[in-house]
Amino acid sequence: MGKSFHFSVYAVTLFCVVLGLSTVVDPSFGDIPTTEVPLFRILNKEIVSFVGGVNITLTFHNYGYSAASGTVWLPWGKVWYGTTLSGDPPRGNISEAVLPFDVNGDGDTSDIFTVEYVDNKTALVDGATVYAMQIPEQIIFYDDGVYAVYEKNNFTLGLKTHVLVRIRYEPAQGSGYASFCLESFFRNHPSPNIQFAIEHTGESMSNPPTAEITYMELNGISIPFEFNWVQHGLFDSQWGVQNEYVYPLGSLGNGAAFTVKLTITGDPGAYILWPIINWSPDGLHRYLFEVFEADCIPFAITGTAHTEVNFEGETYPIDVFTNSTVSPAIAFNSTAKEISFDAIVYSDYGKQATYFWNISIPQTLLTDNPWTITIGNETIPFFISTTNGTHTFLYFTYTYDQGWFTTRKISIKGTWAVPEITPNVLLLFLIITTLLASTLHRRKQHNLK
Ligand SMILES: [Ca+2]
């Protein structure tokens, strides 16, 4: 499955835990703390889009044990990294060059550390025994969700501290994976709390987040976030960016309902919101709750991406009004009379999601009669073309159902494009200039006579 860099406790998870300090709890390995737990479900979910953002309202209900207020540690880190495991014994690696990132702090980015599977709780990393934060016996499903009890395990490579989030191997399939959070630390937060991760795809770990929570209400009262963190993740060569927020919830008694209302604003594009409830009964164990109905909330932000084509010393601004993520660079091919760019969208598995584009193209760059628009290898048969005399506006839609984030190339071909200044044209220009100059020169000489 393509769900690579997300948070789910029952798929590949992004969660990173690491210690930070030397007070590490010994791994209990399945010894679930005997305690009554709260159980959360969703009573109401509402998503309202507007240009430039979205409002998301969620009402949760605790129908389990009372969650008294206290402290819960959460793992934070710089880079989430996943590796597949195969062979006998099953092995993978952490490669600094792939990221690139100095994992052990020795000043280079060329080290490779072996990861060897021991069991679903244990790995050998660079030869040393390392315990996972998440272990199978501590993932408990209930009617409306799932919770996992995480242990505060970490390890070091050289100067840096990391966490093995999770390790799994399926002998029948001959494959497995291990996920890490590199350069990590633990931080104490109010318990219970709600954590939101806004996730989108990226190109590298230097991509800034493109959307943020600009307003949050708890039960009708505006509250600030307690913590904000940006993390990048790489799995299967796809980068993801997560902008994460933590908000305290106060104590939640049995039967308590609470409503969170978020305003998220940002660049146009396809996003996911992952809400997580964190709680600790004892300050030692972290309980992570995912409620199925709010586990993965895809949303799109509508807005204008301001892009441009630079060609032969001229700049041609191209605005794209869209609800997809648009690549910042627009390619122009004068010979093919074509502009093209990548659009990233999101659709749930088996569910259709429709995206739209309204593109303004300067007529000094590219004109039509007719236009040909393709997405991937598909020609778009229906589109609306209008003009204001200087620009053409092309509006079209496309419905996706491939699941997860998908990148497609959008190509727009016209019938005339501003020509390239070819060497021949340059030569002709030189010849004319030379001829003109010599004519003028001769005329000047003639006049002097
Ligand atoms: Ca290194």
Give a topology summary:
Elements: E1 40-50, E2 53-62, E3 70-85, E4 91-95, E5 112-119, E6 122-125, E7 128-131, E8 139-142, E9 145-150, E10 155-157, E11 160-170, E12 175-191, E13 193-202, E14 211-218, E15 221-222, E16 227-235, E17 238-248, E18 257-266, E19 269-279, E20 286-291, E21 297-301, E22 303-311, E23 314-322, E24 325-326, E25 331-333, E26 338-347, E27 353-362, E28 366-367, E29 372-375, E30 378-379, E31 384-387, E32 391-400, E33 404-413, E34 416-417, H1 423-448
Parallel strand pairs: 3-16
Antiparallel strand pairs: 1-2, 2-18, 3-12, 4-5, 5-6, 6-7, 8-9, 9-20, 10-11, 11-12, 13-17, 13-19, 14-15, 14-18, 16-17, 19-20, 19-21, 22-23, 23-27, 24-26, 25-26, 26-33, 27-32, 28-34, 29-30, 29-33, 31-32
The structure holds calcium ion.
The site of calcium ion (CA) has 8 residues, from loops.
Description:
With 449 residues, the protein is mostly beta strands. It has 2 domains: 40-301, no CATH class; 303-417. Helices cover 6% and strands 55% of the residues. It is built from 1 helix and 34 strands. The chain has one helix at 423-448; strands at residues 40-50, 53-62, 70-85, 91-95, 112-119, 122-125, 128-131, 139-142, 145-150, 155-157, 160-170, 175-191, 193-202, 211-218, 221-222, 227-235, 238-248, 257-266, 269-279, 286-291, 297-301, 303-311, 314-322, 325-326, 331-333, 338-347, 353-362, 366-367, 372-375, 378-379, 384-387, 391-400, 404-413, 416-417. Strands 3, 8, 9, 10, 11, 12, 13, 16, 17, 19, 20 and 21 form a 12-stranded mixed β-sheet that branches. It is globular. The model is unreliable at 1-7 and 10-24 (pLDDT under 50). It binds calcium ion. Residues 96, 102-104, 106, 108-109, 111 line the site of calcium ion. Calcium ion binds next to loops.
